[in-house]
Amino acid sequence: MRAEVSLIIEVLKYPESVLEYNSTDWQIILSQGYRHRLLGRLFCLLSDKQLNDHIPEALRWHFQSMQHLSLAHSRDMHIEKLKIEKALKMVGVQPVFLKGLAYDLAKDASSKGRLYADVDIYIPREQIPAAEHALKLNGWFQEEMADYDVAYYRNWMHEIPPLVHKERAVTLDVHHHLLPLTCRFAFSVDKLNLSKAGGHLVLDRDDRILHSACHLFMETEFNKGLRDLSDLDLMFRQHAGADENFWFSITSRADELGLGRLFFYALRYCHQILGTPVPQQILEKCHRQWAPSFGLSVLDWLFTKVLTEPVNANSRFALRSAHYLMFIRGHWLKMPLHILLYHSLHKGWKGFMSMLQRSENVKE
Question: N or C: fewer beta carbons within 10 Å in the chain?
Answer without folding.
Answer: C
